Amino acid sequence: MSHRQFVEQAVRDHGDAVFRLAYSLLQSPEAAEDIAQDTFAKLCRCQREFASDRHLRSWLLAVAGNASRDVLRRRKTLPITLVDPTAPEEFEALASQHAQGGESLPANEQTMDPDHFLWRHVAALPPAQRQVIYLRHVEELKPREIARIVGDPVINVRQLLSRAHKRLRAMIEQETTAEGGTHETTPR
Fold first, then answer.
1. Hey, CA dihedral for 96, 122, 143, 64, is it positive or negative?
2. Residue 19: is it exposed, middle or buried by C-beta count within 10 angstroms (0-12/13-18/19+)?
3. pLDDT by residue for the chain (188 residues), tens digit each?
4. What's the half-sphere exposure (Cβ side, CA atoms, 13 Å) at 152?
5. Distance (Å) of CA 166 to CA 69, 93, 170
6. Helix residue ranges, H only, the chain
């Protein structure tokens, strides 16, 4: 397989995961698309050998995560759009709405299903916590794999996950207590 074919296969196999990770951190489809393109451009220039498809995926997610965090460092505030990062049809709707000059998808909480409720709270987490939650619950990676991607020791990843889960629990409990209702909040 030529290098070009290798990169094209990588885009087909891992492009969605790279985009979703960048989007979960940046909350902007345009910025996420830029990060995805930059990530695969870096793969085009990369001369390293990957031991397996899993190794390649980890490398791509690490590059996309690092680039996304760099963008976050350069920005002071980010608009948050209430979109489930695991639902491709919502990304398409959001992208078309942005193309038509709209600001974001309607956020009618009464019609949101439990996943939307949960991801709205995930979007409110600090970027580092949001990234590990995304990698753990969407990409279904183990803490050891997440540690390799984010470049932190496993203990730090576990601590970030624990703090993120506690923070999510507190935000959800606060909201459900204020509303007097309950929402299904079990992560995948």
1. positive
2. buried
3. 788 899 999 999 999 999 999 998 888 899 999 999 999 999 999 888 899 999 999 999 999 999 998 898 887 554 555 555 566 666 566 555 544 544 333 333 333 344 567 778 888 899 899 999 989 988 889 999 999 998 899 999 999 999 999 999 998 888 888 776 555 544 54
4. 17
5. 23, 32, 6
6. 3-26, 29-45, 53-74, 88-99, 114-123, 127-137, 143-150, 154-179
* Two structure tokens written together for 173: 């409990």
Q: Which amino acid is at 25?
A: L
Which residue type is seen at 154?
A: V
Residue type, 129: Q
Token output for 156: 């730090």
